[in-house]
Amino acid sequence: MTTLNLRLVAFCGLSLLLNLNAQAHPAPKTGAEDENIVIKNKTESYEFIEGKADNPVLIKETKSTVFRCDGFRSSMPFVEFYDDESTIDDVSVYVNGRRNKSIAPQFEYYSVESIFYSDARVCYFSLPLEKKGAESSVELTKTIKDPRYFTTIYFSEAYKVESQEIQLIVPDWMHIAIKELNFEGYSISKQTEQKGNTKIYRYKIQQLPARKSESRSPGPSYIYPHLLILSQYAELSGKKLTYFNTVADQYAWYRQLVLQIGSDKQVIKEKAAEIVKGMKTDLEKQKAIYKYVQDNIRYIAFEDGIAGFKPEKADQVLKKKYGDCKGMANLTKELLVAAGFDARLCWIGTNHIAYDYTTPSLSVDNHMICALQTGGKFRFLDATETYIGFDQYAERIQGRPVLIEDGEKYMLDHVPARLPDQNTDYEKRIVRIDGTALIGKATHTLIGESKEWLLTQIHSLKKDKLSVALQSYLSEQDNKYAITDLQTSDLNERNNSLDISYQVDHKEAVAGFGNDLYVDLDLRKDLVNNDIDVSKRKTDWLFPYKQHLVYETELTIPADYKIAELPVGLTVEDPNYQFRISYKQEGGKILYRKEISIKDTRLKKAAFEKWNKSIAQLKKCYNEQVTLVKK
Amino acid sequence: MMKHVRLALLLSCSLLQFSNAFSQSASDSKSLAEEVRKEIWGWNIPAFNNREIPAAYASEPAVILARHQEIKAISKNKFKFRGLTAAKYKEIYFTNTIREMVKINDKATLEEFSEFSYQKSKKLATFFSPKLKGRLVFLGVRIIKPDGSIKEVNVDDEVLTKNEKTEQRSKVAIPGLEVGDIIDYFFCQQEEEAIAGYRTEPYVFVFGDDKPILHYSVHCEAGPTCAVEYRSMNGAPEFRVKKDADNDNILDAEHKNIAKAPVGLWMSSARQLPILRLNIRIGGPRKIRREEGMVYRNQPYQQIIEDVKIDVKEDFAESQLGLVADALTNDIKSMIKRARKSDDLPKDSLPYYVYYAFRYIAFYRVTPNSEINVGVERNYQTPSKKKFLQLLSLILFKLDIDNKIILATSRYGPDTKQVLLVDDFEYILKTLGNQEIYMSAEGVFTNADFIPAEYEGQDNQSISIRGSGKVTVKPNDDLPEKIPFTKASSNMQKENLKVSLQSDMEKLQIDRQSTLSGEMRWGAQRALLLFEDYYEEERIALSVKESFMETFADSRRNRSLAEEYKAAFAKARSEWKDQFIREIETEYGKKPTELSLYRIDNMGLRHTKPNLVYTTQFSMDGWVKKGGANYIVDIGRLIGTQLELKPDQKERKVDVYMSCARSFQYTIRFELPQGYKAEGLEKLPVQKSNEVGAFKVDARQDGNSIVLVVTKTYNAAFEPVSHWPQLTEIITAAQDFENAKILLRKG
Questions:
Q1: Half-sphere exposure of residue A93, counting CA atoms within 13 Å on the CB side?
Q2: What residues of chain B, 622 to 651, have a C-beta less than 8 Å from chain A?
């Protein structure tokens, strides 16, 4: 080797030789936006074309994206999704204007931890941006095989978009409707042009901010500007191909899938009989069947193209002891029908989705449950919610429109919305002072989603740790909060409240100075850290469910003490939430009562300032203690 | 949770990889799978017929009734010569099978075993035998119901998440599985490979898991072209060894009624769990000498040191490290020359200069071809420590600084006398002669004369590397080197806080200076230092003429790079505040309500100023409570969150392996608000001291302020289990103090 080469080895090869791995421990993400890379220009066009027998109408997608480096050179991950209903036909990569054939896109299954299997696939590669000001671009063509699967066109990207154009080329034989969503506040223009036998829709967008992923955010269909494409029907070669012109069409498509299911009726009949054996009332039987599916069938998410819409045979789900939401809904329905009840399948979009059936489309629903006709109305049973009670509904489906099968016809209904009272988490402690501790008895009563949440948490832990897990949850992992003699109602019982009681020794809850005692009556201090950083947060905040907490402490005043001062308490009333804290004296006792209600799970961005003020008031109130003085 | 975790028990091996195609028909694969299942289900191991759980384990969420691992390395005795290389190669047939039977007693365990995910096949084509199948993995699963009935699961009812010629990956959901069932499953990995040269296969059998194991057995068959070595540690069973009719070596070991492994706090598995280690060397002993067909039990460590010598020599021959060392020495010579011109470099600081110069070249220097990486991720780089120190050793030698490489062992691995493999040793360099300086290579900020605490207290041999181009390595026969223990005072976290109440009487205003020394520095250095700053400090200290920014700006070709680095530096600095917020949150268990100042006062890059010192000013809420006209301050919170022992950690039956002896000191000056007097000071002092450490609190009033001095010390890194009660005493005292309060009374 020459001296020069040695130097090169020393300079460049050393890090390789030393196996330096900067990514071995990547630093935690700061959440700061990546402004280094910008999409200078993006053009997309979607054209409906005639296909062949199996897929008579295709959508040809052409997409060209130009990325620009504004800060410093780096490389970015380029990703394009597809699945069984679409193909990526060609990908061309350009770096600094020159075609780069050495960058080879990878095509793989896209896996998400919570989904067992789906047909989602991803095409990805690393795209270099060679220096500041450099541009790299990607052109790709894609085919969507069936208009039913061509549902949305989102405008926003992971990076800021300076200029974008989207074209929809619709021949006159193809009938579609376009719905524009979340356009307010963005600079978007629309043009329509009739060119011979084709209509062209053009959307131009300028200066679109990057998408930002935040926790507890509403689904993207609520936030980002996009188009909902409703393919109604096509008229080709004298034939009419109906897609989803109306809800009836969508229902008809679902129904023909459902009709294909089949099932071993005998197996189901025997199982149903076994479950309801000895039961007298209809309600008893219905609850037992629901509980059986919740207890015995494990939920595994299978989301696979056409199979993503067709439920598995009920007897197979029973045999395998696992199923996805469709399988579980179908099994619930079949068991109820076998037991003599009017049960039906329903399709529903959870609150993650902004649409309803006024826009018939596959993007409207993402879940399947079972409807049970009783007393002239429907009750809805969602067996994927393992611990929820009969006629109780998880937040994500409350108020949502449901499409219910009714033979050849369909029905539309809504899952009832519930008030926060459905989810009450009630805790009461009756305590007295012993040195610097509060000792006494505590009881909890939980119903609805607060109960379900707790049960889900503790059942996900190993059996011998169940009581430990429960203690840890109840004591808020505060080792000063000692719990003994823990008793609970049946942890497998769905329909009644979950009742817990125990003896409590809350050490260091009382501070004594001279003749004074200062007492902290609230262990939990709910929402104390729930203020929102308005400088960073971009989207509304979604609470997991409508919370209703009632927390009471009854303190016996020591005989040789009297009250020096009771805190004033707090009342915060807002149409969407309520905080009430009160202190009362009744004879020789002090009654502390806190009640928090979240009535609307969606806290809008415009309400953040007011919310933060309310939390500040709550914090201040939590910091106030009862003062007792020696008589 | 996926069962793919289980495949970690099937250790991967170093492979010869050449590109080639191979094909395997589906029906071949299927019939082979059936053969494999038939063989494994037919094993005559009585433990797999046991369905009884001892009463002691009745409330366990899961019990492993039987676990058996079978390893085969059997040669086909084909010796072939091929082409120009005339290399000998052998076809070796490997299997590695693990089968276990688990009783499922709760839902969480049901979840754990309800889905299996594994690599079904992988092409390992070799140049010599393209028709070989490569690696195949077979899965078999059976469910045994409480009534004794056995049902085999159809694992072909699978989802292929990857289905290519080179690799197949599969996911299987297990149908019909319920709490109360026993699941009996196996993974069998098979490979055929033609080995030109040599291959080594290490295995580790750990007799301890997160579930009790009633019966654990291991069976190994090694063909006559293999040499086998093993060692039993910490009371693990030994292998029974015999030869069979084909002259294969057969090794068997078993262990019964293995309780769950102890909890994770302060444990060293390698020193505390019963472990049986096995290594199979296949093929001609081109590198390390072992005799084919022999079984070596508990080789003396001196043999492993001889192996190190051969291994290092091979490394140098293959990677031309000697030449690289030459080039680096020239670079460093130029740097020394420049440093001597601008700043007198005394002779006794030469070894230090060389160390820091090499560290600079490895981690700090930037060239036009470097990837732009200036954010905090850069701080987490770790080198191949051995290569770093080998190169450094040669460079020092070339600069007439004699040195040796100490073969150290970590407290978290086998000790010197129990080593089995070359990789059990780590390196520490030590210069010899007038100045004895230790050098190690932990990462970007390692100082000269620093030894990581995990190597403390052990006797070690050393080797010396000499030469240029062709390198010689020899073990030294001098007395073993004992790595000294560090004292608690060298590994210290020192906090100096000035605290006052904000005018709203709700929040505390805290002005904090933190000084971290020794082992206590790493986390904060990595989290808080910016490359832009430490690059510049080191460059100046080494008398490097100009910064890379200046060099780039001067060059027409690289001018834009200077702009880009500027932008990258700005981005890193804009994210810097969040890093401090996270540091405060880690220390105090909650985020500050506001951070108004954050600054590094000393980076701790060199042994001359080794401490990391930084300043933060922030406010915290929730620590001041109101009682009538008075205020209660949670003054104990100012010492940060303290270790809290979980219920299952309170009782301890095993020795304690902590990271190092260490100490903490908090000096807190709390300014009383005007018009308020402090009460409750008399309750604050604590004096807890015993042979493992101490927790002390002194409290006094000084004018209008309260001054607290809190110290916590752990005297040693290792404590025998008999000292656990004393250790718990210190931990509990610190935990209790977190709840200390004072009253501010009006008037």
A1: 19
A2: 622, 624-630, 632, 644, 647-648
For A24, the 3-state DSSP assignment is coil
DSSP state of A110: -
Is residue A16's pLDDT more than 80? no
> Buried (b) or exposed (e) across B505-518, using 16+ Cβ within 10 A?
ebbbbbbbbbbbbb
Determine, for residues B367 and A518 on separate chains, whether the beta-carbon distance falls below 8 Å. Answer: no
Neighboring chain A residues of B621 at a CB cutoff of 8 Å: 619
pLDDT at A44: 97
Say how far apart CA A48 and CA A243 lie, in whole Å: 14
Helix (H) or strand (E) holding B122: strand B115-122
B124 pLDDT higher than 80:
no
Q: What is the ipTM of this complex?
A: 0.90
pLDDT, tens digit (0-9, with 9 covering 90-100), for A285-298: 999 999 999 999 99
Whether the Cβ atoms of residue B582 and residue B527 lie closer than 8 Å to each other: yes
What is residue A314's predicted lDDT score, i.e. its pLDDT?
94
Structure-model confidence comparison of residues A629 and A20, the more confident one = A629
Distance in angstroms (rounded) separating the CA atoms of residues A156 and A222? 13
CA distance B384 to chain A (A): 5
**In sequence order, what are the residues at sequence separation of 6 or more whose Cβ sits closer than 8 angstroms to the Cβ of residue A253?**
A148, A244
Q: Tell me the pairing of strands A548-556 and A424-434.
A: parallel
Residues 6+ apart with CB under 8 A from B170: B117, B118, B119, B120, B139, B158, B159, B160, B161
pLDDT value at position B195? 65
Cα separation, A370 vs A117, whole angstroms: 23
CB B595 within 8 A of CB B584: yes
pLDDT of residue B14: 25
The answer to whether residue B747 neighbours chain A at the CB level (below 8 Å) is no
Whole-number pLDDT of residue A245: 93
Mean predicted confidence (pLDDT) in A268-274: 96
Q: To the nearest whole number, what is the mean pLDDT of chain A?
A: 90
Sole residue written with tokens 């932008």 = B567
Q: What letter would DSSP give residue A365?
A: -
480-499 in A: which are within 8 Å (CB) of B? 480
pLDDT of the residue at B191? 83
Nearest to B369 among A12, A321, A468 (CB): A12
Residue B331's closest chain A neighbor by CA?
A: A7
Q: What is the pLDDT of residue B472?
A: 74
Helix (H) or strand (E) holding A59: strand A57-69
Interface residue A186 vs chain B (CB under 8 A): no
Distance in Å, alpha carbon of A32 to nearest chain B alpha carbon: 7
In chain A, which residues have their Cβ closer than 8 Å to the Cβ of B379? 27
SS3 A44: strand
Q: What is the pTM of this model?
A: 0.91
Interface size A-B, in CB pairs within 8 Å, comes to 217
pLDDT at B648: 80
Chain B positions in Cβ-Cβ contact with residue A516 (cut-off 8 Å): 627, 630, 743
Beta-carbon separation of B560 and A132 below 8 A: yes
Alpha-carbon radius of gyration of chain A: 30
Query: How confident is residue B122, by pLDDT bands cut at 50, 70 and 90?
Result: confident
Q: Closest Cα of chain A to B693: distance in Å?
A: 23
* Cβ distance of B176 and A320 shorter than 8 Å: yes
Higher pLDDT, B573 or A26: B573
- Other Cβ atoms less than 10 A from the Cβ of B14: the count is 10
Q: Would you state the structure tokens that stand for residue A471, as one six-digit string?
A: 């203690």
- The pLDDT of residue A286 is 96
Give me the residue label for tokens 């620093």: B450
B161 touches A at CB < 8 Å: yes
pLDDT at A32 (0 to 100) = 45
Residues of A in contact with B330 (CB under 8 A): 3, 6-7
Spell out which residues of chain B touch residue A96, defining contact as CB-CB under 8 Å.
Answer: none
